[in-house]
Specification:
With 575 residues, the chain is an alpha+beta fold. The chain is built from 13 helices and 26 strands. Among the domains are: 140 residues, no CATH class; 86 residues, no CATH class; 72 residues, Alpha-Beta Plaits, CATH 3.30.70; 42 residues, no CATH class.
Length: 575
């Protein structure tokens, strides 16, 4: 057990001793102070606060704030009302409760003595703000969390700039494993890329609350990035392990090393717990026990062909007469107006070759856009890119020449399933080494051509949890399970359910993505806002048209009318 956990447990026990002495000074049976959670029920009852607050003492992270609230109110209840006492009670709550209990001068003055003497600043500002933070933290942890689509991995199903809510109840909310954290921050503090937003003094074991089920084939799933256990701070958008394979361990662990295409050093190498790893969103194409294979870009699950999602994108080789999609003058200068009109991101269009007046481009786009491009006068051919079978790509899982796989021809591969046993040897251990050592947390060693798990020679392995295969609909421009392998169930976060805002990225849609104010009067094609995506629900095929905008509008008008009527009644003198 972590030393922080032991210290926290000791502080809790000391506070219970303090409650015991506090209860002795009242009419509450003192033994109740040692009954977990019932003691908090009695304490909140004593200070005449809502008794259901004891439930918040169960929530990791929130319970630390609640301890401060409990100690603050107990201090006032027992006559400790000076500013220094209230500050100490709020920030050193565990010890202060013990102090109140044993202090002979702490006398039970009761709640009635407090009423009418509330501190205005605390009553009007601190209390509402604190409970807004607590309520939002509970909702964010166990029910819904705001999320922004940062990359084009699921383009055009979920798009860069979609602001949405993730339903954590779908697969069961995870109890925070690092509960001491800055409110509403994930792994780093606001306006910082290096300062941790959490403390690892206390670490809880993995625990998931009951949910509606597990991921199914075709679900769009939000999860913690499996490769994110180790991160290069100066290149957080890249897999550390892929960087290490490319540049070597020694280079990456030199803080001043600059990777290709970057203008800043790689920085420190840090480790992150599961719940603080980057959020990714992909489509679950295969579940535990499934056999998966990609043949020329087409997906097969259990030897059955799975139709490609409607909005899926691929890179296409496009030959044109003249510089239709961009020119070359020492560097590629994209035709931003045409690309924006076709909704092809500027960063996903490349010049591949020039032969006389013939230009060949690589454009990333869905099938329907490819058909539109084919019909443009001056386009000679449009050919979907396909990596041939047997062409080994070192960036593709399992990163071994024994498995010469690539983005378009991958597998066959059977996904690990809880309780299933697989034969292992030195030729296939690359498929399961990370599962065994990192996700299932075993000691793995290979010595003299033999595999040892927890210091015992092993020829088989039985998986401890279910694993999933996640892929982006943007098939040629997605870092997904083809790059880093399986996603364990303990990394699964939830399912995106509701888009409330969708804004184009000006760096990707360089024409229509500009103009925050002027775009308010433009349609979705010409302006920055994708109006048709506002207040829509997320489905496995993308979004569904809904009437949420009208519903929220009606609710807003009703609230405004209610407030107007209330104020009018106050002004009208009673007869």
């Amino acid at each position: 057990m972590y030393i922080g956990n032991l210290i926290f447990l000791l502080l809790v026990l000391l506070s219970w001793v303090g409650l015991y002495k506090c209860f002795e000074k009242t009419n509450i049976a003192a033994w109740k102070a040692f009954v977990p959670f019932y003691n908090y029920y009695e304490a909140f009852k004593l200070i005449e606060k809502p008794r259901w607050w004891f439930l918040l003492m169960i929530v990791p992270g929130v319970n630390i704030l609640m301890y401060g609230i409990l100690a603050f109110n107990l201090a006032r209840y027992f006559g400790k009302r000076k500013s220094q006492d209230l500050i100490l009670a709020s920030f050193f709550s565990f010890v202060y409760i013990l102090y109140i209990g044993f202090d002979k001068n702490s006398k039970c003055t009761g709640v009635e003595d407090i009423k009418g003497k509330e501190i205005p600043f605390i009553k009007n500002w601190v209390d509402p703000l604190l409970f807004a933070v607590i309520a939002a933290s509970v909702i964010r942890t166990f029910f819904l969390e705001a999320f922004t689509i940062p990359t084009s991995s699921l383009e055009k199903s979920l798009m860069v700039g979609d602001f949405l809510f993730v339903n954590k109840f779908s697969y069961g909310a995870k109890v925070p494993q690092t509960p001491i954290a800055f409110p509403f921050a994930h792994h780093t503090m606001p306006f910082s890329t290096t300062t941790k937003a959490y403390l690892e003094w206390i670490k809880l074991p993995y625990l998931r609350l009951p949910g509606l089920g597990k991921p199914h084939n075709g679900d769009i799933v939000v999860f913690n990035y499996p490769d994110g256990d180790t991160v290069a701070v100066g290149a957080q958008d890249r897999s550390y392990y892929d960087l290490e394979r490319t540049y070597g361990y020694n280079n990456l662990h030199n803080p001043d090393f600059v990777i290709d295409g970057s203008d800043h050093p790689v920085g420190a190498i840090v480790a992150r717990p599961v719940d603080k790893r980057e959020f990714y969103v992909k489509r679950c194409v295969a579940i535990a026990g499934d056999k998966l294979q990609l043949k020329d870009g087409e997906l097969y699950i259990n030897d059955k062909h799975i139709p490609t999602p409607t909005h899926a994108q691929h890179f296409y080789f496009v030959k044109t007469i003249g510089p239709m999609f961009g020119s070359y003058n020492g560097q590629f200068i994209p035709n931003e107006a045409l690309l924006d009109k076709l909704d092809i991101y500027v960063g996903e269009a490349f010049l591949r070759d020039i032969k006389g007046d013939t230009m060949e481009y690589m454009l990333n786009m869905p099938t329907d856009v490819a058909q539109r491009v084919q019909s443009i006068q001056g386009v000679i051919s449009v050919l979907k890119m396909n990596y041939p079978a047997g062409e080994y790509d070192a960036h593709i899982f399992p990163h071994s020449a024994h498995y010469p796989w690539n983005n378009d021809n991958f597998g066959p591969l059977t996904l690990p399933q809880q309780g299933a046993t697989v034969n292992i040897d030195t030729s296939n251990i690359c498929l399961y080494s990370r599962v065994i050592e990192v996700y299932d947390q075993n000691k793995l060693e290979i010595k003299n051509g033999k595999i040892f798990i927890n210091d015992k020679e092993a020829r088989t392995y039985t998986f401890k949890q279910d694993y999933y295969f996640m892929m982006g609909d943007n098939r040629h421009n997605s870092a997904d399970s083809r790059s880093w392998g399986f996603v364990p169930f303990d990394h699964v976060v939830g399912k995106p359910v509701f888009i409330w805002l969708s804004i184009k990225d000006g760096d990707k849609n360089t024409v229509s993505g500009k103009g925050i104010v002027s775009s308010l009067f433009k349609n979705s094609k010409e302006g920055k806002y994708r109006w048709e995506r506002f207040f829509t629900t997320v489905t496995d095929d993308g979004i569904s048209k809904s009437h949420y905008l009208y519903v929220f509008g009606i609710i807003g008008l009703w609230v405004a009318y209610s407030q107007y009527k209330k104020r009018k009644n106050k002004k009208t003198p009673s007869t």
